[in-house]
Design goal:
The chain has about 290 residues and is of the alpha/beta class. Helix content is about 40%, strand content about 15%. The chain has one domain: TIM Barrel (Alpha-Beta Barrel), CATH 3.20.20. Strand 4, helix 4 and strand 5 form a beta-alpha-beta unit.
Length: about 290
């Protein structure tokens, strides 16, 4: 089982490897460009070589990009749809060049149009993005907390998006905090069993490619997206212990997106906590 973290790339993409190792992370997620902009990134050939060499040397090949937050595949605005599709395609191209496993993204909002009304548009946009960046890099739909008209807060919606694309390169990134606040009762054995049965029937274990490991500052069913450190939120340590004991959930890399003890992002303390709850060996010295 791999326990990892989202880390900064301040100073360049290669710095992610050092930051991950300092945390004891075995899987990595980064924003290769500022997530509030449409900026593209040009990769020099030497950087691509160095990145692949560092990935091989560190063994950190469970490496993911997180797409920009501006993406909305359900928008009625043609310009925003073009930018959203183009940004996903660009990230997939970067991932293919660098050997990054995949791109996690939020589908966006239907803005009151209704999910059914925008499903075809979403499928076409994702298909074009994948066709424009052929290769092995994957697209991971992240479940949303369900606020407002957000798309993807339920597994049936995510399944239907996957079916609309009809590509083996599209799967699920399960966010524990989003799942909890959108109605998954993870704090009881019965609730967890029901949630995982739904995941198996709607998506299938073979399409669960990553887990965002986040406790929730927001209450169950609140549809609010507020991450908290592991064991310090509404989900709690025992719920994470049960989740981490599930053999199918252990197959996917778990990536922390928590605020950290110093409120500076995922830290070694949360990596250690998640490892302990998962029955994994303690980390050695930094």
């Amino acid at each position: 089982m791999l326990i990892g973290a989202h880390v900064s790339v301040k100073g360049g993409l290669l710095t992610a490897f050092d930051r991950a190792r300092e945390l004891g992370a075995e899987a990595v997620q980064v924003n290769p460009t500022p997530p509030q902009t449409w900026r593209h990134l040009h990769l020099e050939p030497e950087l691509v070589i160095q990145f692949r060499e560092r990935m091989s040397a560190t063994g950190l090949n469970a490496f993911f990009f997180h797409a920009v937050y501006l993406i909305n595949l359900g928008t009625p605005r043609p310009e925003l749809l073009v930018n959203s599709e183009g940004s996903l395609r660009h990230y997939l191209e970067l991932a293919n060049q660098l050997g990054v496993r995949g791109v996690v993204f939020h589908p966006g909002s239907h803005l009151g149009q209704g999910f059914d009304a925008v499903l075809g548009q979403i499928g076409q946009a994702l298909r074009r993005a994948l066709e424009g960046a052929p290769g092995e890099s994957l697209l991971l739909i992240e479940n949303s907390a369900g606020a407002g008209a957000n798309i993807g807060s339920t597994l049936p919606q995510i399944r239907r998006m996957m079916e609309a694309v009809d590509s083996p390169r599209v799967g699920l990134c399960l966010d524990t905090a989003h799942a909890f606040t959108s109605g998954w009762q993870l704090t009881t054995e019965e609730g967890l069993s029901a949630a995982l049965a739904e995941l198996e029937s709607e998506i299938g274990w073979d399409r669960l490619w990553a887990v965002h490991a986040n406790d929730s500052k927001a209450a169950f069913g609140s549809n609010r997206d507020r991450h908290e450190n592991i064991g310090e939120g509404e989900i709690g340590s025992e719920a994470f212990r049960r989740m981490l004991a599930h053999p199918q959930l252990r197959r996917a890399p778990w990536i922390l997106e928590v605020p950290g003890e110093a409120r500076q992002g995922p830290d070694r303390a949360n990596v250690e906590r998640l490892r302990q709850l998962g029955g994994l060996p303690a980390l050695g010295p930094p």
